[in-house]
């Protein structure tokens, strides 16, 4: 199995940038692109609550806006501010966003508590029978 500790370390760094004055639940994500580049994201909350965006989508949208379209894996780590990290699984919206840009059977999702302690899934496992770009091809 591949050593993902480098990507999980990036997610831990990304978590430091999270803006979470309401939930105090900090999440970091690090997205590995096909060309080896890594994009980080931390969740960003809002006083109006619903505009809040998850760490995963911050990382993915940054990459997409830099022209990246091939994605290999994303590492996610989250937990309460000042507390222990838990296994923080991506929400349904983020899984669907991943689906837009990832090959479901190949894309890896690493849900980490530390660089050594993590669970590894494919997107296919976390979002089976999904709806994607191919559904809209004529
Ligand atoms: N959150 C993420 O950033 N990613 C996840 O995978 C789950 C939840 C954020 C959204 C919100 O800022 C906070 O965690 C509590 O829901």
From TrEMBL:
Keyword Hydrolase applies: yes
Reactions it catalyzes: 2'-deoxycytidine + H2O + H(+) = 2'-deoxyuridine + NH4(+); cytidine + H2O + H(+) = uridine + NH4(+)
Alphabetical keyword list: Hydrolase, Metal-binding, Zinc
Positions of Zn(2+) binding: 54, 91, 94
A biological process term (GO) from this entry: pyrimidine-containing compound metabolic process
Gene3D superfamilies: Cytidine Deaminase, domain 2
E.C. numbers: 3.5.4.5
GO cellular component, one term: cytosol
Molecular function GO labels: cytidine deaminase activity; identical protein binding; zinc ion binding
Active-site positions on this chain: 56 (proton donor)
Pfam families in alphabetical order: dCMP_cyt_deam_1
Protein residues bound to substrate: 43-49
Cofactor dependency: Zn(2+)
Taxonomy, superkingdom: Bacteria
Domain CMP/dCMP-type deaminase stretches: 2-134
Function as written in the Swiss-Prot or TrEMBL entry: This enzyme scavenges exogenous and endogenous cytidine and 2'-deoxycytidine for UMP synthesis.
Family: Belongs to the cytidine and deoxycytidylate deaminase family.
Matches recorded under PANTHER family: CYTIDINE DEAMINASE
The protein's name in its UniProt record: Cytidine deaminase
Gene name of the record: cdd
